[in-house]
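Dataset card, provenance and construction

Sequences and ligand SMILES were collected as paired inputs. For each pair, a complete structure of the chain with the small molecule in place was predicted and serialized as structure tokens. The example below shows a pair involving glyceraldehyde-3-phosphate. Curators did not alter the output after generation; any descriptive sentences attached to a record were derived from the structure itself.
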Amino acid sequence: MTSHTLIAGNWKMNGLLSSLDEARAIAEGSSDSVVKIAVFPPFTLLHAMSEALGPDSHILLGGQDCHHEDNGAYTGDVSAAQLLDAGARMVLLGHSERRHGHKEACELVALKARAAVKAGLEPLICVGETLEQRKEGLTHAVLSKQLRDSLPDDLIGKAFHVSYEPVWAIGTGMIATDDQIIDAFALIRRVISERFGDEFKPHLLYGGSVKPDNAAEVLRLEGVGGALVGGASLKAADFLKIIHSAPLVHELKS
Ligand SMILES: O=C[C@H](O)COP(=O)(O)O
């Protein structure tokens, strides 16, 4: 069974209205690609980007986080329904910059995932170990716990994606080795199929220092269904090179 490769760009806290030109250039430069493409701009650009790309754009937009409640007195937060209203179809959850920077626990990520699917968004849930945890031989234990506790039962039968992002590979230029990625993906596939059944095969992405010059190698690895790209998604020229180096489809392994 095959699925379209998903290349997702996380702009993090980068981008002003003037950056919409990059989004337009990404759309124009990938109009003939069947690779699934997603961009996660900051909240401030979501609606403007949706308008700039138009209602029939092949670029899927997503929020970088959402609150777990539908609405209420949560200053500074954004609900899943508000993301949808602004043009999002997806939402990033459990990114390590939130798990570590904002001390978000797995249980909170699970509540957010529940709110996301309830609103009709596809969650892209991130998991990954720190360098210390890897050195201590805890990678499998950490990934298993994050997957077990961050993925609610509400995801059963819903479209969602998981990205393996070793924390030490994010923004460092130090991409994980092929063996490390293959090993982590085998574990992630096993935990997800134990939890949701063999039939269920979400997109599994790799994230962490994916660049135009290493994307093709990562994306050809067994079971890698796409990439979550940070820094190299900010410039259309770089992001397009990654999109064009991706296989159009990949095998879904059980
Ligand atoms: O969400 C994206 C990841 O954090 C990867 O970021 P990076 O490509 O800048 O290393």
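Derived descriptions for this record:
The CA atoms of residues 17 and 45 lie 7 Å apart.
Strands lie at 2-4, 6-10, 36-40, 59-63, 90-93, 122-127, 161-164, 203-207, 226-229, 249-251.
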